[in-house]
Amino acid sequence: MAVTANFVPDRIDLLPNTPATMTLRLYNGDDERREVSLVASGPLNDHVRLDSAIVTLDPNQIVDVPTAVFAPPTVAADSYTIAVQATVGGTGGPPQDGANNGAPTASEVVLASGTVEISPHSDYSIALQPVMSRGARGGRHTVRVANTGNVALALDLAADDAGDEQLRVAIEPSLLSVPPGLTGDATVRVTPATTYWSGPNQDHVVALHATSAAGRTDALVGAYQQRPKLPNWVGPAAAGAFAALLLGAIAWFAFARPWVQDTADEAAAEAIELDRAALQERIDELEAAAAEAEELPLGTPIDFRLQVEPTGGNTEVTAADVDSDTIVSITDVVFQNPTGAVGTVSLQRGDEVLLRSELANFRDFDLHFVAPYQFDDADEIVLSVECRTPGAGASTCPVGASLVGFVDEVD
Question: Cα–Cα distance between 88 and 106 in angstroms, integer?
Answer without folding.
Answer: 8
